[in-house]
């Protein structure tokens, strides 16, 4: 198919500066790369942090953001194997890893110290044509809804990997803190698909109705309850076996340390802007064998498993499709904590 010389892209020029909607050259695929004609891209809270320059490691600007993209292969490099023109592929957070270090060899791709990140250190998916590393790019099955599968490439696989890292088994209680947001709405569903019982914690009746539709066994409204921890422990019969904290609010993370039962695990996934710290009671942590751990995005195998669960119809990604020029409005909603589900950019401008 004909490939144009130029395309439309959303470009972050400076931290927190204007988001430029501009013409850019269509990238040429390197020897190990795919060139994708992009269809859709989810908008992740990490995109907001990248644009604002919130984190200690600054994004490489000027930058095309985005890392939840789905597109069709229209060209590929000379070394690429296992792909053909017309296949559907994804642009995800991990653009590439070294493939040689102990972490890569053990399947811990997200810990590779020589990784490149889509929409952060490497141009991402907020453009009409994008390159993807042929090894890291996930295969998108034929017949799936391309707009809905886009957020699975970061939000979906991230919560799926975090649930696996909790070390819990089916039938146990998982508490999702921030259950009504983009990550939380998927975390609830993946937890249910994996056989867990789920209590969702968030604020407001609107989010209560939303997460109940997604299948939570119980909902705790943090805006109403005077003692959220006591309510979670009452609902779960002594505390959750694990808490998956997808909120970006440090206060919510701190509170979640009190939601678990003895030998329980708190898994931190949401990342706040700027530096943040948690206060851990050492006596209780030792006495009750608590665990607090972090979880980043999943590896290649977990990515394909998360996509497979979606493809089987076990995960419904609640999305709102918008135009490329509306990205700034989504960022505003994120800053106001008004997001429910996931926003997806239609890149067919």
UniProtKB/TrEMBL annotation:
Gene Ontology molecular function terms on file: alcohol dehydrogenase (NAD+) activity; zinc ion binding
Domain of life according to the entry: Eukaryota
InterPro entries (UniProt xref): ADH-like_C, ADH-like_N, ADH_Zn_CS, ER
Catalytic class of the enzyme: oxidoreductase
Domain Enoyl reductase (ER) stretches: 16-345
Keyword Manganese set for record: no
Obligatory cofactor(s): Zn(2+)
GO CC term (a single one): cytoplasm
Alphabetized UniProt keyword annotations: Metal-binding, NAD, Oxidoreductase, Zinc
EC number: 1.1.1.1
Pfam families in UniProt: ADH_N, ADH_zinc_N
PANTHER family: ALCOHOL DEHYDROGENASE 1-RELATED
Stated family: Belongs to the zinc-containing alcohol dehydrogenase family.
Protein name stated in the entry: alcohol dehydrogenase
Organism: [Candida] subhashii
Lineage of producing organism: Eukaryota, Fungi, Dikarya, Ascomycota, Saccharomycotina
